[in-house]
Amino acid sequence: MPQPPRWPSRRSAISVQLMTQFGLDHGLSIEHCLANTGLDWRLLADPSAEVAASQELQLLRNIAQGLGHLPSAGLEAGQRYRLNTYGIWGFALLSSPTYRSAAQLGLRYLDLTYAFHRIRLDEDGDEAHLVFDDKDVPEDLRTFTLERDVAGALSVQRDLTNAKLPLLGARFRIPAPTDLAPYRDLLGLTPQFNAEDNRIIISRRLLDLPLPGANPQVALHCEEQCRVLLARRRERGGLSGRVRDRLLALPGLGADMEQLASELHMTSRTLRRRLEAEGTSFRGLLEEVRQTLAEELLASTGLSLEEIAERLGYGEVSNFLHAFKRWKGVTPGRYRRERALSPTPGGWE
Fold this sequence. Notes:
The protein is an alpha+beta fold.
């Protein structure tokens, strides 16, 4: 059975607004752009609105099909995503001390962006690779969304550094377009096509260059707001909400899937299938709960790391340390110190 996509089911409507305007600017009608999305054109005037990920994908499909005659239309579309398009997430990146810290923070809260690729930063020798994993992207949209997400990432980078990032290389899984000029103009080089994966490559030393808008205290404020916003978007109803609430109530988070399924009067197979239908999994919910509790315990208690690891159901503190570093990009100790130095945020929306 295919795994559900890993991006959130709900997202800000700002991307829909941008892409609809992109379609209109190229001669498409609003009816064409919104066809089969279930979206009302009046939504486009509401900056606080949210849409389903499936609705935005259908809108992108409509635009990609309507502009199939334009070479690499996704590259042009992606350049409409600027740093200020992303709200508090963009402010957090802009205030980060280095490109590395901005990238790490941005990827921790990737679910607050409009990307449909899962993006990660790999460091290999003297190189740094920004990898775009397309396994959740529908096959018919892989070219348009890859072009859009790559161009959008580079647009954000330019806003961060006030300069175009010099690339060492790029390779993509999609077929080569008939016109390479748009790629050369954007990337400054000719990428490899029909590759095994999607990535752009820069010099690793660029990661440690200072950013002109660096302000660590503001970055901490913004990250806190990113955390709150992401938690709000991840609030769950239905069966997944019941599972999450049950996990929060269990001492040590000790229940396994079989036990919890029995408490809910169903088989573990049924539980797994119903959670997949809601876009999640038992393991994913357990990770969410552990991360939420870990952040709260580190910030608001004097418990040792060993005690926190035990409360979260980890047999070894080293397993907790590895998990927390994967979640937040920093060690639990560093997270606790930074939270202790950060005043309670206020006035950020």
